[in-house]
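Notebook, bench 3.
Goal today: get a predicted structure for Putative MFS transporter from Aspergillus ellipticus CBS 707.79 so we can plan the truncation constructs. The sequence was checked against the plasmid map this morning, with no discrepancies at the termini. Length recorded as 485 residues. Pasting the sequence as submitted so the record is complete.
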Amino acid sequence: MAKEKGISQHDETICEQEPEFDRKAESRLRLKIDLYVLPTVALIYLFCFIDRANIGNAKLAGLEKDLGLHGYDYNAVLSVFYVSYILFEIPSTMACKLIGPGWFLPATTLAFGICSLGTAFVQDIHSASGVRFLLGIFEAGMLPGIAYYLSRWYRRRELAFYLSVYVVMAPLAGAFGGLLASAILTLDHFGSLHTWRMIFAIEGIITIGLGLVAFVTLTDRPETARWLSAEEKDLAIARLQSERIATTEVLDRIDRAKTLRGIFSPVTLTTAFIFLLNNITVQGLAFFAPTIVRTIYPASSVVSQQLHTVPPYIVGAFFTVLFPFLSWRFDRRLLFFVVAPPLMMTGYILFLASTSAHVRYGATFLIASGAFSFGALCNAHSSNNVVSDTARSSAIGTTVMFGNVGGLIATWSFLPFDAPNYHIGNGLNLATSSMTLLVAALMWCWMRWDNRRREKIDVDDALGGLSQRQIQDMDWRNPAFRWKT
């Protein structure tokens, strides 16, 4: 099944060259995984993002007035979500590994669907904040959990693209969420609920249904997949094993050494910082796009304003898949870390330089084009640059945790007193996109330099006298390891 070609070993553990696989068999396996795994995770992430961001649509439909929110109350309600999201990010990701994603992901989907449904019945800022806090707890493990889950199925060079297939649900959620909210608001009532309360109720019920379906459709890992033959299971495991330097296990036990290797890798921390900067833009768009559109088209109806938020997200969705797809084909991720920020920078410069409604609306297309691809690229980059399964789960959890610090900052980036031009919010986002470009370029240079340094090391001499366990615990510190740019 795997035709090994020129494999040298140290203590029969360190592969310097990956085995070659039957490309047709590998393509058939990958297609089968695509059909069985991707649809479910994409749909649950779509409604994860809708249930998080639909408060922006509800705001346009009268949420602030009905709950008696004044001044910065709306920003405070948004912030509560991110407090719990950040606190539970890494614990949730480790729980996903411990419980198994086949059970964890459906359970957390069911839980945040119930929270979304509960938001339809809040009466004041206190109850709204309480429900948003719970929503943050249950959504904390979703983005890193799915990224970690897909890393159990796809190879490193494939991962960014396949992550993009579900991360693209974030901009699509902005588009679809606007369309769905517009459709819901045409109803007179849903039971005893009216206006914005119908948005939370209907979307929450859909999410609950998806969570129940996911219990049936998701399976933990290739070994437990009833829809794979024994030969396909062996190939799926071998594909992943071939990329793990100095480890004999695809799925290992959680331990402190590997967990800390994932968190404190210099590439993890740098990538996490980039995701923090980027998420200020992504989450700011999610929460405030309807508000920004209202300042551009103040005379339009609420439904028309909702619909105007859709086209930029569609364009953003296209680039969310395009950049990771090209990264798969070229087997490069950092190239797109430096290509995307100039799009965002141009968009915010237009926002700051012009008051023309048409120019500003066009700027939202540029911003969406550059911003949304980082969700897939950052998580793939963190995952690709550690070795063990435990280190991958903690690396992805760290990346997403930092990203949600950016989400917390985003809730305070577009403030009421700064309307209608939002100089502070647009200036902040111009600065973060510029910083993203700089940090990504510096990381790329450092990784290339460190790989050249590692090539000069005598691996046999460096690892002499170490046990198998000690070599495995080195993870990315192993001199045989090479950073994937």
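The domain at 23-477 is CATH 1.20.1250.20 (Growth Hormone; Chain: A;). Residues 23-60 form the longest helix (38 residues).
Flagging this for group meeting.
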